[in-house]
Write a structure and sequence with these properties.
InterPro entries: Aminotrans_IV (IPR001544), Aminotransferase-like (IPR036038), BCAT-like_C (IPR043132), BCAT-like_N (IPR043131), Class-IV_PLP-Dep_Aminotrnsfr (IPR050571)
Bound molecules: pyridoxal-5'-phosphate
Number of helices: 8
Number of strands: 15
Organism: Spiribacter roseus
Radius of gyration: 19 Å
Order of helices and strands: EEHEEHHEEHEHEEEEHEHEEEH
Enzyme class: transferase
Distance between the termini: 24 Å
Function: Acts on leucine, isoleucine and valine.
EC number: 2.6.1.42
Length: 285
């Protein structure tokens, strides 16, 4: 069955949906996006995603008001039309269509695209096995806090990791881990403290990361926001990634060195379970 997607005011079968070849998202990656998880047919942390979208748009000077555009209603309608129970809604807003020029046009109308993707989020193989990551230099631009569609390098690195028999990459800059190809990276030290890189232009300010840090602080765990090295990760008791669709997923090896006993750890399991429970209690329909 073909999906129904949303493009610039219309709900269309995916085969009939199209964007102009002159769209600045196509030519310059002049576009921002959000991915919202859907569980039990409801959305996880929709409001936080909308706030980050507003920030990304403002940083790029794209004149688009998500609230005026009724994005919540569009998400709901797309979930309904595709009978989506579990998976994600992808939303992209580009600056719009204009003749190709490095000078950003001021008059074009932003393009808006939404689609759904059905996939298992609650039960995944990686939750049981954990992920093996390799490290690679972080060669992305230095405004990683803006969620743009400029994803070529992380896509190349994810592909490289899989070609080398691993699951994903952790990128490294100045001797410390920045983040995964599409996730934030965290470790749990031998003393139980959660160590994670602080928010800055170096990383995307993950919505899942923020929720997990709140929870960890509520439970009285020490949360230390500072960069950590690859060696620290390899000596950690546990390690995990967070993202809207991976939730909290254990990492069991970094560059072939096992973390702890090489199996997903209990603290990561606890954090994942709590994250899922809390998300399910607050789903937005
Ligand atoms: N870091 C990067 C580079 C990402 O692409 C993502 C998600 O796509 C994240 C972190 C996690 O962010 P969130 O938890 O908001 O999905």
């Amino acid at each position: 069955m073909s999906r129904i997607v949303y493009v610039n005011g219309e709900f269309l079968p995916e085969d009939a949906a199209c964007l102009s070849v002159f769209d600045r998202g196509v030519l310059f990656a002049d576009a921002v996006y959000e991915v919202t998880a859907v569980v039990d047919g409801g959305m996880v942390d929709f409001e936080a995603h909308q706030q980050r979208l507003c920030r990304s748009l403002a940083e790029l000077g794209i004149d688009f008001d998500p609230r005026a555009a009724g994005l919540l209603k569009l998400h709901r309608e797309l979930i309904r039309r595709n009978a989506l129970n579990e998976g994600l809604v992808y939303l992209q807003v580009s600056r719009g269509v204009a003749d190709r020029s490095f000078l950003q046009p001021t008059t074009c109308q932003p393009s808006v695209v939404l689609f759904t993707q059905a996939q298992s989020l609650l039960e995944t193989a990686a939750t049981g096995t954990g992920l093996r990551v390799i490290t690679q230099p972080d060669l992305r631009w230095h405004r990683r806090d803006i969620k743009t569609t400029q994803l070529l390098y992380p896509s190349m690195m994810k592909t490289l990791a899989v070609e080398q028999g691993a699951d994903d990459v952790w990128m490294v800059e100045g001797g410390t881990v920045t983040e995964g190809s599409s996730s934030n990276a965290h470790i749990i030290r031998a003393d139980g403290a959660l160590v994670t890189r602080p928010t800055s232009p170096d990383i995307l300010h993950g919505i899942t990361r923020a929720a997990v840090l709140d929870y960890s602080r509520e439970t009285g765990a020490a949360v230390i926001e500072r960069p950590f090295t690859v060696a620290e990760a390899q000596q950690a008791r546990e390690a995990f990634i967070t993202s809207a669709t991976a939730f909290v997923t254990p990492v069991v090896a970094v560059d072939g060195v096992a973390i702890g006993d090489g199996r997903p750890g209990p603290a990561t399991h606890r954090i994942r379970s709590h994250y899922i429970q809390r998300s399910r209690e607050r789903l937005q329909y």
